[in-house]
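Board notes (copied after class):
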Amino acid sequence: MSYMNHKEKQVGAVSLFIVIFAALLMTIVTVSFVQLMLKEQQQATSNDLSQSAYDSAQSGVEDAKRLLVLDQACRNNTAPGTVNCTAVESSLTPVAGQSETSCDTLSKAGLVGETNNETIIQQSESDANSASLNQAYTCVKIAVNTDDYKGTLSVNGSGIVPIRGVSQFDSVEVSWFSKNDISSNTNDPTIGFPSSGANVSLPPMGDKWQFNNPPLLRTQLMQMGGSFKLSDFDDSQAGNKSNANTLFLYPSATGLANEDFALDARRSPTNTPHQVKCNTSFVDGEYACQATIKLPSPIDGNVTDRNAYLRLTALYNGAHYRVRLKNGGNYVQFNQVQPLVDSTGRADDIFRRIQARIELTGDFTYPEAAVDMQGNLCKNFTITDVDSGYKGSATCTP
Protein backbone atom coordinates (compact mmCIF):
# COMPACT_ATOMS: atom_id res chain seq x y z
CA MET A 1 0.00 0.00 0.00
CA SER A 2 2.82 2.37 0.80
CA TYR A 3 4.39 1.49 -2.57
CA MET A 4 1.29 2.60 -4.41
CA ASN A 5 1.15 5.92 -2.54
CA HIS A 6 4.78 6.59 -3.34
CA LYS A 7 4.15 5.89 -7.02
CA GLU A 8 1.13 8.19 -7.11
CA LYS A 9 3.20 10.93 -5.50
CA GLN A 10 5.84 10.56 -8.24
CA VAL A 11 3.21 10.74 -10.98
CA GLY A 12 1.74 13.87 -9.39
CA ALA A 13 5.14 15.55 -9.24
CA VAL A 14 5.82 14.81 -12.91
CA SER A 15 2.44 16.24 -13.90
CA LEU A 16 3.19 19.37 -11.87
CA PHE A 17 6.54 19.82 -13.63
CA ILE A 18 4.86 19.32 -17.02
CA VAL A 19 2.26 21.97 -16.21
CA ILE A 20 4.94 24.40 -14.99
CA PHE A 21 7.14 23.93 -18.10
CA ALA A 22 4.11 24.16 -20.40
CA ALA A 23 3.07 27.41 -18.71
CA LEU A 24 6.61 28.77 -19.01
CA LEU A 25 6.73 27.76 -22.70
CA MET A 26 3.39 29.42 -23.40
CA THR A 27 4.54 32.53 -21.52
CA ILE A 28 7.75 32.70 -23.56
CA VAL A 29 5.85 32.22 -26.82
CA THR A 30 3.28 34.85 -25.84
CA VAL A 31 5.93 37.37 -24.78
CA SER A 32 7.84 36.71 -28.01
CA PHE A 33 4.73 37.31 -30.10
CA VAL A 34 3.97 40.48 -28.16
CA GLN A 35 7.51 41.74 -28.67
CA LEU A 36 7.26 40.86 -32.35
CA MET A 37 4.01 42.75 -32.70
CA LEU A 38 5.39 45.74 -30.84
CA LYS A 39 8.46 45.80 -33.10
CA GLU A 40 6.26 45.53 -36.19
CA GLN A 41 4.07 48.32 -34.88
CA GLN A 42 7.12 50.48 -34.13
CA GLN A 43 8.53 49.73 -37.59
CA ALA A 44 5.21 50.59 -39.25
CA THR A 45 5.01 53.82 -37.25
CA SER A 46 8.61 54.69 -38.14
CA ASN A 47 7.96 53.97 -41.81
CA ASP A 48 4.84 56.12 -41.73
CA LEU A 49 6.68 58.97 -40.00
CA SER A 50 9.62 58.62 -42.38
CA GLN A 51 7.30 58.92 -45.38
CA SER A 52 5.58 61.90 -43.76
CA ALA A 53 8.97 63.54 -43.15
CA TYR A 54 9.87 62.91 -46.79
CA ASP A 55 6.58 64.49 -47.88
CA SER A 56 7.35 67.48 -45.66
CA ALA A 57 10.74 67.86 -47.33
CA GLN A 58 9.03 67.68 -50.72
CA SER A 59 6.74 70.50 -49.62
CA GLY A 60 9.86 72.57 -48.98
CA VAL A 61 11.06 71.80 -52.51
CA GLU A 62 7.71 72.87 -53.98
CA ASP A 63 7.81 76.17 -52.08
CA ALA A 64 11.38 76.66 -53.30
CA LYS A 65 10.10 76.23 -56.86
CA ARG A 66 7.60 79.02 -56.22
CA LEU A 67 10.42 81.27 -55.08
CA LEU A 68 12.58 80.47 -58.11
CA VAL A 69 9.68 81.15 -60.48
CA LEU A 70 9.07 84.49 -58.78
CA ASP A 71 12.76 85.31 -59.08
CA GLN A 72 12.65 84.47 -62.77
CA ALA A 73 9.63 86.73 -63.21
CA CYS A 74 11.39 89.53 -61.34
CA ARG A 75 14.46 89.22 -63.57
CA ASN A 76 12.22 89.29 -66.67
CA ASN A 77 10.20 92.25 -65.33
CA THR A 78 6.98 90.21 -65.53
CA ALA A 79 6.32 89.77 -61.80
CA PRO A 80 2.99 91.07 -60.40
CA GLY A 81 3.16 94.38 -58.58
CA THR A 82 2.39 92.65 -55.27
CA VAL A 83 5.68 90.72 -55.39
CA ASN A 84 8.53 92.20 -53.38
CA CYS A 85 11.33 91.55 -55.89
CA THR A 86 13.91 93.13 -53.60
CA ALA A 87 13.12 90.60 -50.85
CA VAL A 88 13.10 87.75 -53.39
CA GLU A 89 16.51 88.68 -54.75
CA SER A 90 17.95 89.22 -51.26
CA SER A 91 16.69 85.83 -50.03
CA LEU A 92 18.58 84.02 -52.80
CA THR A 93 21.91 85.62 -51.91
CA PRO A 94 24.29 82.86 -50.71
CA VAL A 95 25.66 82.88 -47.19
CA ALA A 96 29.12 84.41 -47.07
CA GLY A 97 31.74 81.80 -47.93
CA GLN A 98 29.14 79.27 -49.11
CA SER A 99 27.40 78.47 -52.38
CA GLU A 100 23.88 78.19 -50.92
CA THR A 101 21.46 80.33 -48.98
CA SER A 102 20.50 80.10 -45.31
CA CYS A 103 17.81 77.77 -43.91
CA ASP A 104 15.20 80.56 -43.66
CA THR A 105 15.32 81.45 -47.37
CA LEU A 106 11.58 81.08 -47.94
CA SER A 107 10.55 83.14 -44.91
CA LYS A 108 13.04 85.88 -45.88
CA ALA A 109 11.34 86.09 -49.26
CA GLY A 110 7.96 86.46 -47.56
CA LEU A 111 6.53 83.25 -49.06
CA VAL A 112 5.91 81.41 -45.79
CA GLY A 113 5.79 82.03 -42.08
CA GLU A 114 7.88 80.26 -39.46
CA THR A 115 7.10 78.99 -35.98
CA ASN A 116 10.07 77.99 -33.82
CA ASN A 117 12.36 78.15 -36.89
CA GLU A 118 10.26 75.78 -38.97
CA THR A 119 7.31 75.98 -41.36
CA ILE A 120 4.25 73.93 -40.41
CA ILE A 121 2.73 71.93 -43.27
CA GLN A 122 -0.89 72.92 -43.83
CA GLN A 123 -3.47 72.85 -46.59
CA SER A 124 -4.33 76.53 -46.25
CA GLU A 125 -3.76 79.47 -43.93
CA SER A 126 -7.11 78.74 -42.27
CA ASP A 127 -6.24 75.08 -41.61
CA ALA A 128 -6.50 75.06 -37.82
CA ASN A 129 -5.83 71.33 -37.49
CA SER A 130 -2.52 71.36 -39.37
CA ALA A 131 -0.42 71.62 -36.19
CA SER A 132 -1.92 68.38 -34.87
CA LEU A 133 -0.25 66.46 -37.73
CA ASN A 134 3.14 67.59 -36.39
CA GLN A 135 4.67 67.92 -39.87
CA ALA A 136 7.01 70.71 -40.95
CA TYR A 137 10.09 71.49 -42.99
CA THR A 138 12.89 72.84 -40.86
CA CYS A 139 15.47 74.01 -43.40
CA VAL A 140 15.35 74.87 -47.12
CA LYS A 141 18.58 75.99 -48.80
CA ILE A 142 18.92 76.99 -52.44
CA ALA A 143 22.07 77.15 -54.56
CA VAL A 144 21.17 79.12 -57.69
CA ASN A 145 24.67 78.68 -59.14
CA THR A 146 25.77 75.06 -59.47
CA ASP A 147 29.01 73.29 -60.36
CA ASP A 148 27.39 71.16 -63.06
CA TYR A 149 24.21 70.34 -64.95
CA LYS A 150 22.80 66.81 -64.74
CA GLY A 151 20.11 65.08 -66.75
CA THR A 152 18.91 61.87 -68.37
CA LEU A 153 18.51 61.03 -72.04
CA SER A 154 16.27 58.28 -73.38
CA VAL A 155 17.12 56.41 -76.58
CA ASN A 156 16.98 58.96 -79.43
CA GLY A 157 15.93 61.54 -76.85
CA SER A 158 17.37 65.04 -76.62
CA GLY A 159 18.10 67.55 -73.91
CA ILE A 160 18.78 71.28 -74.10
CA VAL A 161 21.36 72.72 -71.71
CA PRO A 162 21.62 76.53 -71.49
CA ILE A 163 25.34 77.34 -71.44
CA ARG A 164 25.47 80.32 -69.09
CA GLY A 165 28.31 80.76 -66.60
CA VAL A 166 29.01 83.08 -63.69
CA SER A 167 32.15 84.15 -65.58
CA GLN A 168 33.72 83.68 -68.99
CA PHE A 169 34.33 80.13 -70.29
CA ASP A 170 35.81 78.61 -73.46
CA SER A 171 34.89 74.91 -73.36
CA VAL A 172 32.36 72.39 -72.05
CA GLU A 173 33.06 69.05 -70.40
CA VAL A 174 30.46 66.41 -71.27
CA SER A 175 30.28 63.12 -69.32
CA TRP A 176 27.73 60.39 -70.01
CA PHE A 177 26.64 56.81 -69.28
CA SER A 178 26.62 55.91 -65.57
CA LYS A 179 26.27 52.65 -63.66
CA ASN A 180 22.53 53.30 -63.34
CA ASP A 181 22.17 52.92 -67.11
CA ILE A 182 23.03 49.20 -67.04
CA SER A 183 22.27 48.12 -63.44
CA SER A 184 18.72 47.08 -64.37
CA ASN A 185 20.06 44.54 -66.88
CA THR A 186 22.98 42.95 -65.03
CA ASN A 187 24.82 42.78 -61.72
CA ASP A 188 28.16 42.96 -63.55
CA PRO A 189 28.49 46.59 -64.69
CA THR A 190 31.18 45.96 -67.32
CA ILE A 191 31.31 48.60 -70.03
CA GLY A 192 31.41 47.42 -73.62
CA PHE A 193 32.01 49.13 -76.96
CA PRO A 194 30.23 48.60 -80.29
CA SER A 195 33.54 48.36 -82.20
CA SER A 196 37.25 48.85 -81.66
CA GLY A 197 40.12 50.35 -83.58
CA ALA A 198 40.02 53.12 -86.15
CA ASN A 199 37.39 51.43 -88.34
CA VAL A 200 34.19 52.28 -86.46
CA SER A 201 30.77 51.67 -87.93
CA LEU A 202 27.16 52.71 -87.34
CA PRO A 203 25.25 49.43 -87.11
CA PRO A 204 21.47 49.07 -87.46
CA MET A 205 19.56 49.76 -84.26
CA GLY A 206 19.76 46.79 -81.87
CA ASP A 207 22.12 44.87 -84.13
CA LYS A 208 25.49 45.47 -82.52
CA TRP A 209 24.88 48.15 -79.89
CA GLN A 210 24.37 46.23 -76.64
CA PHE A 211 22.80 47.47 -73.39
CA ASN A 212 26.25 47.97 -71.79
CA ASN A 213 27.55 50.11 -74.68
CA PRO A 214 27.56 53.89 -74.05
CA PRO A 215 25.44 55.71 -76.64
CA LEU A 216 26.74 57.65 -79.58
CA LEU A 217 26.28 61.24 -78.39
CA ARG A 218 25.30 63.94 -80.84
CA THR A 219 26.38 67.32 -79.46
CA GLN A 220 25.02 70.46 -81.10
CA LEU A 221 26.05 74.00 -80.21
CA MET A 222 23.80 76.98 -80.86
CA GLN A 223 25.07 80.38 -79.80
CA MET A 224 25.08 84.07 -80.48
CA GLY A 225 26.98 87.00 -79.08
CA GLY A 226 25.55 90.44 -78.41
CA SER A 227 23.87 90.50 -81.84
CA PHE A 228 23.33 88.08 -84.68
CA LYS A 229 21.55 87.45 -88.00
CA LEU A 230 19.69 84.26 -88.82
CA SER A 231 22.13 83.61 -91.64
CA ASP A 232 24.95 83.41 -89.09
CA PHE A 233 23.80 79.91 -88.15
CA ASP A 234 24.79 78.71 -91.64
CA ASP A 235 28.09 80.55 -91.74
CA SER A 236 31.55 80.39 -90.23
CA GLN A 237 34.36 82.90 -90.27
CA ALA A 238 38.12 82.88 -89.89
CA GLY A 239 39.48 82.81 -86.39
CA ASN A 240 37.29 79.90 -85.29
CA LYS A 241 34.05 81.90 -85.30
CA SER A 242 30.75 80.08 -85.66
CA ASN A 243 27.22 80.12 -84.22
CA ALA A 244 26.23 76.52 -84.97
CA ASN A 245 28.29 73.32 -84.79
CA THR A 246 27.70 69.58 -84.47
CA LEU A 247 29.92 66.73 -83.31
CA PHE A 248 29.14 63.00 -83.12
CA LEU A 249 30.99 61.48 -80.17
CA TYR A 250 31.56 57.74 -80.61
CA PRO A 251 32.41 55.73 -77.43
CA SER A 252 35.74 53.96 -77.70
CA ALA A 253 38.49 52.46 -75.57
CA THR A 254 41.18 54.20 -77.62
CA GLY A 255 39.69 57.60 -78.47
CA LEU A 256 40.57 61.15 -77.46
CA ALA A 257 39.60 63.14 -74.37
CA ASN A 258 39.68 66.57 -76.05
CA GLU A 259 37.52 67.67 -78.97
CA ASP A 260 36.84 70.92 -80.81
CA PHE A 261 33.59 72.12 -82.36
CA ALA A 262 35.75 73.44 -85.21
CA LEU A 263 35.93 69.79 -86.36
CA ASP A 264 32.25 69.95 -87.29
CA ALA A 265 31.68 67.16 -89.82
CA ARG A 266 29.16 69.27 -91.73
CA ARG A 267 31.84 71.87 -92.47
CA SER A 268 34.74 69.40 -92.84
CA PRO A 269 33.19 66.17 -94.17
CA THR A 270 34.53 62.92 -92.73
CA ASN A 271 33.52 59.28 -93.05
CA THR A 272 33.70 58.46 -89.35
CA PRO A 273 32.51 60.07 -86.11
CA HIS A 274 34.92 61.35 -83.46
CA GLN A 275 36.05 58.61 -81.08
CA VAL A 276 36.00 59.55 -77.40
CA LYS A 277 38.05 57.58 -74.88
CA CYS A 278 35.81 55.80 -72.33
CA ASN A 279 36.57 53.69 -69.28
CA THR A 280 36.03 49.93 -69.28
CA SER A 281 34.57 50.03 -65.74
CA PHE A 282 33.02 52.49 -63.32
CA VAL A 283 35.90 52.16 -60.84
CA ASP A 284 37.60 55.22 -62.33
CA GLY A 285 34.59 57.55 -62.17
CA GLU A 286 30.84 58.06 -62.07
CA TYR A 287 30.55 58.18 -65.87
CA ALA A 288 32.05 55.91 -68.50
CA CYS A 289 32.77 58.55 -71.15
CA GLN A 290 34.02 62.11 -70.91
CA ALA A 291 35.06 64.70 -73.48
CA THR A 292 36.13 68.33 -73.18
CA ILE A 293 34.95 70.28 -76.24
CA LYS A 294 36.46 73.63 -77.17
CA LEU A 295 33.88 76.27 -78.08
CA PRO A 296 34.24 78.60 -81.06
CA SER A 297 33.74 82.33 -80.67
CA PRO A 298 30.37 83.76 -81.77
CA ILE A 299 30.28 85.30 -85.24
CA ASP A 300 30.35 88.81 -83.78
CA GLY A 301 33.30 87.82 -81.56
CA ASN A 302 31.53 88.85 -78.34
CA VAL A 303 32.38 86.03 -75.91
CA THR A 304 31.46 88.17 -72.88
CA ASP A 305 27.76 88.24 -73.84
CA ARG A 306 27.79 84.71 -75.21
CA ASN A 307 24.24 83.27 -75.25
CA ALA A 308 24.65 79.57 -75.96
CA TYR A 309 22.74 76.28 -75.80
CA LEU A 310 24.04 72.73 -75.97
CA ARG A 311 21.70 70.12 -77.43
CA LEU A 312 22.58 66.51 -76.54
CA THR A 313 21.00 63.50 -78.26
CA ALA A 314 21.65 59.88 -77.23
CA LEU A 315 21.68 57.50 -80.20
CA TYR A 316 21.44 53.69 -79.92
CA ASN A 317 21.16 53.77 -76.10
CA GLY A 318 19.99 55.96 -73.21
CA ALA A 319 22.27 57.61 -70.67
CA HIS A 320 22.62 59.82 -67.63
CA TYR A 321 24.85 62.78 -68.36
CA ARG A 322 26.66 65.71 -66.75
CA VAL A 323 27.86 69.00 -68.27
CA ARG A 324 30.48 71.30 -66.73
CA LEU A 325 31.87 74.62 -67.95
CA LYS A 326 35.60 75.30 -68.14
CA ASN A 327 37.83 78.27 -68.75
CA GLY A 328 41.21 76.83 -69.61
CA GLY A 329 41.89 74.28 -66.86
CA ASN A 330 39.50 75.84 -64.32
CA TYR A 331 35.85 74.96 -63.82
CA VAL A 332 33.19 77.69 -64.00
CA GLN A 333 29.81 77.49 -62.26
CA PHE A 334 26.52 77.60 -64.13
CA ASN A 335 24.62 80.84 -63.60
CA GLN A 336 20.97 80.21 -62.58
CA VAL A 337 20.55 77.31 -65.00
CA GLN A 338 19.69 74.33 -62.75
CA PRO A 339 19.29 75.53 -59.14
CA LEU A 340 19.85 72.95 -56.39
CA VAL A 341 17.36 72.80 -53.50
CA ASP A 342 18.35 71.17 -50.19
CA SER A 343 15.26 70.56 -48.04
CA THR A 344 14.89 68.92 -44.60
CA GLY A 345 11.46 67.72 -43.49
CA ARG A 346 10.19 66.58 -40.11
CA ALA A 347 7.33 64.41 -38.89
CA ASP A 348 7.21 64.10 -35.09
CA ASP A 349 10.86 63.25 -34.21
CA ILE A 350 11.81 61.76 -37.62
CA PHE A 351 13.77 63.87 -40.12
CA ARG A 352 14.37 63.35 -43.86
CA ARG A 353 16.64 65.37 -46.09
CA ILE A 354 16.45 65.48 -49.88
CA GLN A 355 18.16 67.37 -52.70
CA ALA A 356 16.43 68.28 -55.94
CA ARG A 357 17.57 69.99 -59.12
CA ILE A 358 15.05 72.43 -60.53
CA GLU A 359 14.55 72.93 -64.26
CA LEU A 360 13.36 76.46 -64.96
CA THR A 361 11.29 76.64 -68.15
CA GLY A 362 10.06 79.65 -70.03
CA ASP A 363 13.36 81.33 -70.91
CA PHE A 364 13.88 79.10 -73.92
CA THR A 365 11.78 76.38 -75.54
CA TYR A 366 13.29 74.21 -78.24
CA PRO A 367 10.93 71.86 -80.15
CA GLU A 368 12.05 68.30 -80.78
CA ALA A 369 10.41 68.27 -84.21
CA ALA A 370 7.94 70.25 -86.31
CA VAL A 371 5.93 67.03 -86.82
CA ASP A 372 6.21 63.99 -84.56
CA MET A 373 4.14 60.87 -85.25
CA GLN A 374 3.95 57.10 -85.27
CA GLY A 375 3.14 55.69 -88.71
CA ASN A 376 2.67 57.37 -92.07
CA LEU A 377 2.42 61.05 -92.94
CA CYS A 378 0.08 62.19 -95.68
CA LYS A 379 0.35 65.72 -97.10
CA ASN A 380 -1.88 67.38 -99.71
CA PHE A 381 -0.72 70.38 -101.75
CA THR A 382 -3.04 72.47 -103.90
CA ILE A 383 -1.89 75.31 -106.15
CA THR A 384 -4.50 77.71 -107.50
CA ASP A 385 -4.80 81.27 -108.71
CA VAL A 386 -8.25 81.65 -107.19
CA ASP A 387 -8.56 83.34 -103.77
CA SER A 388 -9.65 80.89 -101.07
CA GLY A 389 -9.47 78.15 -103.65
CA TYR A 390 -8.03 75.51 -101.28
CA LYS A 391 -10.23 72.49 -100.78
CA GLY A 392 -9.10 69.61 -98.64
CA SER A 393 -8.94 66.23 -100.36
CA ALA A 394 -11.46 63.69 -99.20
CA THR A 395 -8.99 60.83 -99.48
CA CYS A 396 -5.31 60.49 -98.93
CA THR A 397 -3.21 57.45 -99.83
CA PRO A 398 0.17 57.28 -98.06
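Comment from the instructor: DSSP finds three helices and 17 strands in the chain. The chain has a mean pLDDT of 82.
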